[in-house]
Amino acid sequence: MHGSVLALVWLLSPAATQGAFGTARPAECGVADGFRAANAWERAKEPNLRRYCDLLASGTAKLVGSGSNVLVNEVPQIADEADKLLPGRAAPAVLKGRALLRLGKAPEALAALDEAKRRDDRALDDPVALLAWARANARTGRLAEAARAYRAALPRTSSLTSQERSAASFEAGMTVMAQGSAGIDDAVAMFRQARRDAQDAMQIASVVGLALALDRAGQRDEARAVLAERVRSDVKPHLADPRVAEAMADAGSATEADALVALALEASAADGGASARDAWRRYLEGAGGKGPWADHAREHAGGAAPAKKPAARAGGGR
After folding, report:
1. Number of alpha carbons in the 13 Å side-chain half-sphere of residue 253
2. Dihedral angle over CA of 291, 217, 276, 178, nearest 10
3. Which pLDDT score is estimated for 129?
4. Are 29 and 85 within 8 A, CB to CB?
5. Is 185 within 8 Å of 316 (Cβ atoms)?
6. Of 60, 75, 51, 58, nearest to 23 (Cα)?
7. According to DSSP H, which parts of the chain are helical?
8. Does 241 have pLDDT greater than 90?
């Protein structure tokens, strides 16, 4: 589709870029009171505006309309070209950051999104951009910043599809849970939301995530009930599903997979719990052994006295 036609569709159809896989239309390409970007007065003030909006529309279409990364590879260059036409605007940096994240270049994506924030402190207000910021931070190990971003993003995700909402809620729960017991009640609420919105493998992952959060919160009877209601087979294939694996990586919590598997194996106890204890030990041998939930894992692995249950907190969302 020709670039100017793409821009016309983009400008006239808000849903095309404000849905689950799009991004909010930049204000300079918007239609606040009529077809503003096509207005002759606007074009006179900014002669490069039409081409700039064409490029952003083209880049967005390549980013959200392709199941592969072949077209996505072109997006950073498109964003740079738009940036040269109207220097200093935040939208090209946001587009570039989202594309780089999709391409697995989290540090570069974080730098681009940080530049967008520097140019405009509201650049990441759109939920899709804010989720990209959360994911880039999580993938680069900045979990505290990622958790803050996820907390800010979740209330804004009503316009996203159920698939996107479930992924965001699951990722948020994993990231917040990684902060330790202080955020465990919020993590429980996030996993409950993920379970409501999710389907297929993501729903199984959300159920096991919820059970793990409940168990870590000291609510072990409910954790077992949650697993018994939905998990009746090996969860490892579900956790290996590409969507779930990507969500785990986006949450910066790929190392938590052993804990999820271990708790699910406890529910079956087909071998007297030996497989579950082995999984807990693998978790402890990895990054989990140095994390905030090491004592919880040792208790389940049978290698330490039971850890204290977290004190009851108000507003836990259970």
Report:
1. 32
2. -30
3. 96
4. no
5. yes
6. 60
7. 3-12, 14-18, 40-45, 49-64, 75-85, 91-102, 106-119, 127-139, 143-153, 162-177, 184-197, 200-216, 220-230, 236-239, 242-250, 257-268, 274-285, 294-301
8. yes
The encoded tokens of residue 81 equal 């070209």
pLDDT at 33: 34
Confidence of residue 88 (pLDDT cuts 50, 70, 90): very high
Q: How far is the first Cα of the chain from the last one, in angstroms, to the nearest whole number? A: 49
Task: Look up the pTM and report it.
Answer: 0.84
How many angstroms separate the CA atoms of 93 and 8, rounded?
22
Residue length, the chain?
318
Mean pLDDT to the nearest integer, 229-249: 93
Nearest to 174 by CA among 250, 274, 288: 250
CB burial of 256-273 (b: ≥16 within 10 Å; e: otherwise) equals bbbbbbbbbbbbbeeeeb
- Whether 34 contacts 61, CB under 8 Å: no
Query: Which letter does DSSP use for residue 124 in this model?
Result: T
Amino acid, single-letter form, for residue 179 = Q
Distance, in Å, from the CA atom of 18 to the CA atom of 23, rounded to the nearest integer, reads 5
Task: Please tell me the distance from the alpha carbon of residue 220 to that of residue 149, in angstroms, as a whole number.
Answer: 29
Burial 227-255 (b: 16+ CB within 10 A, else e): beeebeeebeebbeeebbeebbbbbbbbe
Looking at residues 212-240, what average pLDDT do you find? Answer: 94
* Paired tokens of 22: 């799009």
Query: Cα 114 to the chain's mean position, in Å?
Result: 17
The residue behind tokens 């992952």 is: 205
Tell me which amino acid residue 1 is: M
Q: How many CB atoms lie within 10 A of CB 198?
A: 26
